[in-house]
Specification:
This protein is an alpha+beta fold and 135 residues long. The chain has one domain (3-133): 2-Layer Sandwich (Heat Shock Protein 90). 36% of the residues lie in helices and 28% in strands. A 5-stranded antiparallel sheet has the order 1-2-3-5-4, covered by helices on one side.
């Protein structure tokens, strides 16, 4: 059966820990193997922490999270309202040198699909949508 959960939250690290565990539990409840649920938890946690640090400079800020299950895949979208960016980040296909981009590389390795959706340079915010087949 398909379902969707939508949450509005803040980037408080304690809240982010709870949310990543919730998403992992949802994957497990729908039949994900332990390793797949763990991959989802790590990828969601990395995405949430990226928003905390990159969008809001480590300060609390608003986030929207949507978890969707279509019977085969679990998809998670994390959207922030942080500062506008000049260039949309891409998910690296190979391990980048030390510095920026390693978090997106990790997310790309753990999930089946990852898309970065950026607003225009005049609009704040960025969204990351990731999905993993769990059945």
């Amino acid at each position: 059966m398909a379902w969707t959960i939508s949450l509005t939250l803040t980037t408080d690290p304690q809240v982010l820990r709870i949310v990543r565990k919730m998403v992992s539990s949802a994957a497990t409840a729908e039949g994900a193997a332990i390793i797949d649920a763990s991959d989802i938890e790590v990828a969601v946690g990395e995405t949430l922490m990226n928003a905390h640090f990159h969008a809001y400079g480590g300060e609390p800020g608003p986030l929207s999270l949507t978890v969707e299950f279509d019977g085969l895949r679990l998809a998670v979208t994390v959207s922030d309202e942080g500062k506008a960016i000049a260039e949309r980040p891409t998910v690296p296909m190979s391990l980048p040198p030390p510095g920026r981009g390693r978090g997106l590389y990790l997310i790309g390795q753990l999930m089946d699909d990852v898309n970065v959706i950026a607003s225009s340079t005049r609009q704040p915010g960025i969204a990351v949508r990731m999905a993993k087949r769990i059945r």
